[in-house]
């Protein structure tokens, strides 16, 4: 910048000298004008060089030439601002939960109740689920469920929803029960994290009627809802005598019986037991055995055969029972 000022001062001095000289007869106007032009071009060249960062004194001005202004060109390497996609592999086996189809969490049910839990899931991975994929019990209460269950008999394509079910039985004792299942692929690898669970509340059955030493005479009817014999309402069984040696308990009015063991069956066990409308033949071996039943009104219960007296089957006998009938859930 200092150099430019010096040149500018010198140029002005030169112009003043040429223009202020008192030798008009010795100065050629053309020459004077050319000198002024040269001085101006010199100043312009110095200023242009200074602005361009070029070293001063390197610009040569030739009279009659046209001086070009030097403009520096800076080349900047191009930058690609577009993002380059990174190839990522989509996971093979991914399952998403859609909803509970059956048995919401906290559903109450009586002991021994059979039920089916169904979850709706979606294949969110890249792989097709085949018939070799299973749902397997993981932890908690299995509730008599199978260790593993096939989830499909065909193929479940990615993006497809599927209902998966397991058959279960409510435990005998009242309380809260929860079991968790996971999905397993054809290679035996578990690919769910939290899994799918079922949670139920087993309720305590309430007694509807109960009686110890309930006596039923031969050829009499009995009502296990009320504990009456002869019954006031509709009877549940008949203590029948086919012959002196063939005496039976005959279910009546859609009542059902299931002969059990000497261990008292719970509500749950009686609920699970296969009860039938078949007669139970009375023998001395039945003493101290338990029977599960379902009354004509649909209530579950059990009774224990305490005695059959007299022991002489040729005489009219009396059947003595301890029984309990539970209320409807």
Number of discrete helical segments: 3
Overall shape: elongated
Count of distinct structural domains = 3
The assigned structural class equals: alpha+beta
Percentage beta strand = 25-35%
Mean pLDDT: 81
Fold blueprint:
Elements: H1 2-20, H2 29-52, E1 95-100, E2 107-109, E3 114-123, E4 134-140, E5 148-150, E6 161-169, E7 175-184, E8 196-202, E9 207-217, E10 221-222, E11 237-243, E12 246-251, E13 256-259, H3 267-272, E14 280-281, E15 290-294, E16 300-309, E17 318-326
Parallel strand pairs: 2-8
Antiparallel strand pairs: 1-3, 3-6, 4-5, 4-7, 7-8, 9-17, 10-11, 11-12, 12-14, 13-15, 15-16, 16-17
Helix pairs in contact: 1-2
What does this 3D model show about the protein?
With 329 residues, the protein is of the alpha+beta class. The chain folds into three domains: 1-73; 95-202, Sandwich (Immunoglobulin-like), CATH 2.60.40; 207-326, no CATH class. Helices cover 15% and strands 34% of the residues. It contains three helices and 17 strands. The protein has helices spanning 2-20, 29-52, 267-272, and strands at 95-100, 107-109, 114-123, 134-140, 148-150, 161-169, 175-184, 196-202, 207-217, 221-222, 237-243, 246-251, 256-259, 280-281, 290-294, 300-309, 318-326. Strands 2-8-7-4-5 form a five-stranded mixed sheet, with no helix packed on it. Strand 4 and strand 5 (148-150) form a beta hairpin. Helix 1 (2-20) runs antiparallel to helix 2. The chain is elongated, with a radius of gyration of 53 Å. The model is unreliable at 1-9, 11-40, 45-71 and 79-85 (pLDDT under 50).
